[in-house]
Write a structure and sequence with these properties.
The complex is a heterotrimer of chains A (about 400), B (about 250) and C (about 300). Chain A is of the alpha/beta class and about 400 residues long. Chain A is built from 14 helices and 15 strands. In chain A, the strands form three sheets. Chain A has a seven-stranded mixed beta sheet, sandwiched between helices. In chain A, helix 5 runs parallel beside helix 6 and helix 8 crosses helix 9. The longest helix of chain C has about 30 residues. Classes of the chains: A alpha/beta (about 400), B alpha/beta (about 250), C mainly alpha (about 300).
């Protein structure tokens, strides 16, 4: 009913009125969105994470719970030192209580350490490394959306079960790619499959044709893409050109976001199998959220799993703070978050384990054929729901010191 | 004094000059090289600029054609003041430039070198006429420009200017480093051009050679014209000239 | 089966062919750089950004005007060339009297600005651009599956390189260009409008980059950083070939594509590095590059 411009004013007025009424009971909360706003991951993180956080605050209606919420954001440029410095300044000087997003594994680990030192709260949505809830877990960090183990279990396990029992890897030649290949290989072996070959591709690579030719020559049923971002896009684009899928081989993207698939278009990406915990077109609730999100984004883009994660974790964090009526003790807040079951429109019901791992279902998707796709964002069809307790690493296998053996 | 005043105020048209240079100053970067050159060249005349090495002869030519870094004063060609014009526009008035060391392009064939300068005025020689004048250029048309001998390169440098229809030719040391027999041939060519009505400004170290061609000689010292000797009076002034040139 | 160092000869042929295709991009891009450096003495660091622009213009033509690949192949180089002409007139022309370094810094800054603007507008994931219908599919050769589009890339690139070479070596226009590269002052003194030549040459050089961008759009990710990745390699190609050598840049482009292709078979981890190793070796033995004239 209100115009878009009028609305924030009304909210502010409402908040102001409540402030006067219940001044003693009000808790101030400051949330920092620390992501990649200009680099390789700015489409899965960036401004979309800020929009998602704002929508969460809007839906939570903090004034009704005696909270006053402020959101700030910054660009960590995918550099651990920059990320740690911003986190430190936010906690020390700017009274930030909680940081989220934290895309890029190396930056996430750095922010996690600073957060523990300052006893604040860090909920990571964008980073892949499973170490956040493994050897490097802390009482102040939660890992919300996905990790490399879950991706390996999801795509690797499911593909083998569906008959893709021989694999060839295109592996980005750095820690992330190698870890992903290692984890996925373990899953393949466990499920009775076999890795017949792999090639290390320099990072970044723009032309994968030569590597694809080797993969094609290997005769493997599945070509696993242990890479990310532009490398993944280039390898999929060129696989289409070389008729890989038409030749009967399947492509498995081990870390693919819907924004990557959107950039490829269904014509090129069709048939690609991948694992994600969220897709905008899963159900009425995700569609409603995604419409609101898209209206605030330049170009009307749909939310990625990372954006959905920011919405979901901000909501859960505010619930915990509303119960505690304080943000002072970060570890206590995280403990409260772990104690409360999670429930939101995007990920449904879930739990946060002792090691900080948020557990929810993941989905095995296949990219639609152009004929099946009804619009530029109509990208996936769901092949399988992988239950949360099967897709994530078992609690006792992560070597997290918080888990008593 | 009245004579000097007369020189500077009488317009080009009145004196019958094709080219009138007044108070021409020139700089290479920060160094001030020309300090006020005054020269008149009448149509159909051959004049030489004589002087020691570094006196400013070549610089004067470069300043006239407009390729010196910075210049000031007045250079009037056929009544048009060119001091503020870009060199490509000066050339288009009908000036042809044959630089020292000939300026033959190594990456062009002889024929391409010949055809390179655009026609600036009607009435230039045809290629056939140039080939008649310099038969070697025809024989070696397909060779790389710098593979020619020094004398052939000089013929090419002159020939390509004759194609353009330029009426005033600035010739910078055409005999430098050439065998006497070639020097004679160049001399005959210049003589021939003179009879055809070309106007020529010649920079020359060798005044014995210049003597056979020129109507008047301008002596340049330290960026100024210090004397003008009509060719007829050259022998009478030979001692003075030796002093100027330090021979 | 016959093998060479443990690699089947058939696979080797395939890899060599792919190397040649990659070499096509190196050749067109380094050709443009060589022409620009030769005449303008500008080390054009904006070349990669303009290559990226070529790919984006192709995408824009399709998305906003419904003009497909073949239109883009003609129009995008014109758009990029026109943009280059504006850059040259407004900015680069002011630096000709200064050291190379200034031109390098200016064009490097321009590259960052252009990339930043595109990133701000279109994000980093890139945009979809499909292979034109006429060129989709491929040929099953005895030793590999050759996508039709890749074959087209080699043909198009060779055609453009040879045509450019012919224009430079065999026409009046080319003679002006060569002469002005050697001695711009003298050419100017003959009445030729050299500044106009400089502008048009820059425009043409970057139009080549735009053309390469359109060729790349259907097979590489169309994103704002696509030029930054390739341009460093292309600079190495230019250095190996000899700065300013037209024919050298083309031959070196194709040859290094082949070398890179072979490396991808025998030691893939080094395939991003091999060109730079060759560059170091060439510089040690022939500082002016393989085809460069020693000054």
């Amino acid at each position: 009913m209100f115009g878009r411009i009028a609305r924030p004013v009304t909210l502010a007025a409402l908040a102001g009125a409540l402030t006067m009424g219940t001044a003693a009971a009000q808790t101030n909360v400051k949330i920092g969105i620390l992501g990649d706003r200009s680099g390789a991951y700015s489409d899965i993180s960036g401004e979309g994470s800020v929009v998602a956080a704002k929508l969460a605050v809007e839906d939570f209606k903090p004034e009704q719970h005696g909270l006053k919420v402020e959101i700030v954001s910054a660009d960590h440029q995918n550099k651990p030192d920059v990320g740690a410095a911003i986190a430190r300044q936010w906690y020390d000087r700017d009274a930030v209580d909680m940081i989220t997003d934290g895309v890029t594994s190396s930056v996430a680990l750095a922010i996690s350490q600073v957060t523990k030192e300052k006893n604040k709260v860090f909920v990571d949505t964008g980073a892949g490394t499973a170490d956040l809830t493994g050897p490097q877990c802390t009482p102040n960090t939660i890992h919300w959306v996905y990790d490399t183990v879950a991706l390996a279990n999801g795509t690797g396990g499911a593909m083998v079960k569906r008959g893709g029992n021989t694999w060839f890897f295109l592996t980005a030649d750095y820690v992330f790619g190698q870890t992903l290949q290692r984890d996925t290989s373990a899953v393949i072996a466990k499920n009775g499959g076999k890795v017949v070959g792999s090639v290390k591709t320099p990072f970044p690579t723009s032309d994968f044709s030569s590597f694809l030719l080797q993969a094609q020559g290997s005769g493997a049923k599945v070509i696993g893409l242990a890479n990310a971002g532009t490398d993944t896009i280039n390898s999929i684009k060129q696989a289409g050109e070389f008729g890989i899928t038409e030749g009967g081989q399947a492509l498995a993207g081990l870390l693919v976001f819907s924004s990557d698939v959107h950039s490829l278009g269904t014509k090129v990406a069709q048939g690609l199998v991948l694992t994600e915990p969220f897709y905008w077109d899963l159900n009425d609730q995700t569609r409603a959220f995604s419409d609101r999100f898209a209206k605030q984004m330049k170009g009307g883009s749909k939310p990625t799993a990372n954006h959905a994660g920011v919405y979901s974790d901000v909501l859960h964090y505010l619930k915990a703070v509303a119960e505690l009526k304080s943000t002072a003790d970060g570890a206590a807040t995280v403990a409260k978050m772990k104690a409360m079951p999670t429930d939101d429109p995007l990920f449904g019901k879930g739990v946060i384990r002792a090691d900080g791992r948020k557990i929810h279902d993941m989905y095995l998707f296949e990219v639609k054929k152009p004929a099946e796709s009804k619009g530029e964002w109509d990208l996936y069809k769901k092949l399988e729901t992988i239950p949360g307790d099967q897709v994530f690493r078992p609690l006792n296998e992560g070597n997290c010191p918080l888990v008593k053996g | 004094m009245p004579e000097a005043a007369l020189k500077t105020v009488v317009p080009a048209a009145a004196t019958g000059s094709l080219l009138t240079v007044r108070g021409l100053e020139g700089w290479y970067g920060e160094s001030h090289v020309l300090h006020g050159i005054d020269i008149d060249v009448r149509a159909g005349e051959v004049i030489t600029l004589l002087g020691r090495n570094g006196a400013g002869k070549t610089t004067t030519l470069r300043a006239i054609i407009g390729i010196l870094g910075k210049r000031a004063g007045s250079v009037v060609y056929e009544g048009v003041e060119t001091i503020r014009m870009a060199s490509r526009n000066i050339a288009r008035l009908g000036l042809g430039y044959v630089p020292e060391e000939r300026g033959i392009f190594a990456s062009l064939t002889v024929h391409e070198n010949l055809m390179l300068p655009p026609r600036v005025k009607p009435g230039g020689m045809s290629v056939a006429e140039i080939h008649q004048l310099f038969p070697n250029l025809k024989e070696r048309a397909g060779s790389q420009g710098t593979k020619l001998s020094g004398g052939e390169q000089q013929m090419l440098a002159i020939g390509r200017i004759l194609r353009t229809g330029a009426k005033l030719i600035l010739l910078d040391e055409p005999t430098e480093g050439l065998a006497p027999v070639i020097v004679q041939q160049i001399g005959r060519t210049i003589q021939q051009l003179k009879t055809q009505g070309y106007t020529i400004v010649l920079v020359e170290q060798n005044f014995r050679f210049a003597q056979t061609l020129a109507d008047r000689h301008f002596v340049i010292e330290q960026g100024r014209v210090v004397d003008m000797i009509p060719n007829a009076e050259l022998d009478a002034n030979i001692d003075k000239l030796h002093a100027y040139l330090g021979v | 089966m016959t093998t060479i160092f443990g690699v089947p000869t058939q696979a080797l042929f395939g890899q060599l062919l792919l190397g040649l295709i990659n070499g096509s991009f190196y050749a067109i891009l380094s050709l443009g750089l060589a022409i620009i450096f030769g005449l303008l003495n500008i080390i054009n660091f904006a070349h990669g950004a303009l290559y990226m622009m070529g790919a984006f213009v192709a995408w824009m033509l399709l998305t906003y005007f419904g003009l497909g690949y073949w239109w883009a192949l003609g129009l995008a180089p014109l758009v990029v060339g026109a943009f280059g002409i504006v850059l040259e007139r407004v900015l680069i022309a002011r630096l000709y009297k200064l050291d190379h370094l200034y031109g390098l810094l200016l064009t490097f800054g321009l590259a960052l600005i252009i990339q930043g603007l595109f990133r701000n507008q279109y994000g980093v994931s890139g945009l979809p651009y499909a292979i034109p219908a006429e060129l989709s599919g491929g040929q099953r050769l005895p030793f590999m599956f050759l996508p039709n589009y890749r074959a087209w890339v080699v043909v198009a690139s060779l055609t453009v390189c040879i045509a450019t070479w012919l224009v430079i070596e065999k026409t009046k226009l080319g003679a002006y260009l060569r002469a002005a590269t050697e001695n711009p002052t003298l050419v100017q003194a003959f009445g030729v409008n050299v500044p106009l030549f400089l502008t048009l040459t820059y425009g043409f050089g970057v139009a080549l980059a735009g053309f390469a961008g359109v060729l790349a759009a259907p097979i590489y990710s169309v994103n704002p950083n696509m030029g930054a990745d390739i341009i460093i390699v292309v600079f190495a190609v230019v250095v190996i070939g000899g700065m300013g050598s037209i024919i050298g840049s083309v031959i070196t482009g194709f040859a290094l594509g082949l070398v890179e292709g072979l490396t991808k078979v025998f030691y893939p981890e080094a395939s991003a590095t091999v060109i730079f190793v060759i560059m170091v070796l060439v510089l040690l033995v022939k500082p002016a590059g393989l085809f460069g004239r020693t000054a």
